Amino acid sequence: MDLSYSSDERDLIDLARQVFATFDQDILAESPPREVVPRADRFMGEVAGTGLLGIGLDEEVGGSGGTLVDLGIVFREAGRAVVPTAIRSTIGAALHIDQLGTTPQREEWLGRLTTGEVTAALAIAEPGVDRRIDLITTTASASADGWVLGGTKTLVENISTAGVFVVAALVAGEGAPTVKYFVVPAEAPGLSIETTTVIGEEDHGRLTLADVPVPASGLLGEDPRRDSRAAAARAMLVFDALRAQEMVGIAEQIVERTAEYVTTRHQFGRPIGTFQAVQHRVADMLIATRAAGHLANRAVWTLSEGLDAERDVAASVVLAAKAAEIATLSAHQVHAGMGYAKESKLYLWSQRAKSLVLQTSGRRHQLQRVAESLFDAA
């Protein structure tokens, strides 16, 4: 297994870094929340024009080609630049449509998502059950024209501007209910959104579906009796691996910013980076980040090869979350008072890291997945 980057992958790193570097972080640091979303949307269109939103998706259905390793690179660079979360949410929805949809459905939606014509978001988590698909209560009932959806979804990203939502719901039938996924337009009758205040003032909220009509073509897949849990679990596994890459990117950027700071900040007539206590802090940050980066690369590689990746993905999420935690806390400590000043912008990475940790079902759940895979293997 060779996890070093090829020349093509290094070119992709350069492209993504160059594109994401054009995002003005002052939008997040200085603009009122109501101005952040439209300005971020304009940047989303610029990113779509480079083809980065279609990385990892087949060209035949509107993607840009490439592998999951390539998509992992895009997410890591997105973490370094704390780009708008609409990029992450749209790619996450596209992955589910790609995994669950028929060829006509993939052709209809993926091209529109990857070109920035429309943004999207996943609507899976529910009050009190997080992303536990086996515990969701949102229902989809057959109607003369298709389906009627009812239920409530929480922690929906990009909720204010998403053009479509990919919604998980239970379909009743003979035997046990099956879990299916539906593409629901944001303007559908009976659909309402409520934005919620979350860390970092990101665009999250609650999605309420009150007898929302969905056409038959909105059901992803062909057979409503065929349960989608396994295929959806694969899509979510990929998404978790990508979010681990994003957390690694956050940690990498913080390490670099801190290393630069300790060489330019002087105390007692010398750079603070010459003091051993500071060196220990920065070394711990770098070690944790490098370790998390290697495991995150292994996780996306394992997925791209079609191998059993559940243990690698869960472990990569845990290690990436830990690296982001060590990096952010240590950076604030080393920067001292300046680290808590808005001018340093350090808090942008800290907030994004914390938000991502909360969205990946928590460290305890991921560790449980690792333990279960180890016991199963034994």
UniProtKB/TrEMBL annotation:
InterPro entries: Acyl-CoA_Oxase/DH_mid-dom, Acyl-CoA_Oxase/DH_mid-dom_sf, AcylCo_DH-like_C, AcylCo_DH/oxidase_C, AcylCoA_DH/ox_N, AcylCoA_DH/ox_N_sf, AcylCoA_DH/oxidase_NM_dom_sf. Pfam families: Acyl-CoA_dh_1 (PF00441), Acyl-CoA_dh_M (PF02770), Acyl-CoA_dh_N (PF02771). Residues 121-211 form the Acyl-CoA oxidase/dehydrogenase middle domain. One of its GO terms (molecular function) is acyl-CoA dehydrogenase activity. Keywords: FAD, Flavoprotein, Oxidoreductase. Belongs to the acyl-CoA dehydrogenase family. This is Alkylation response protein AidB-like acyl-CoA dehydrogenase.
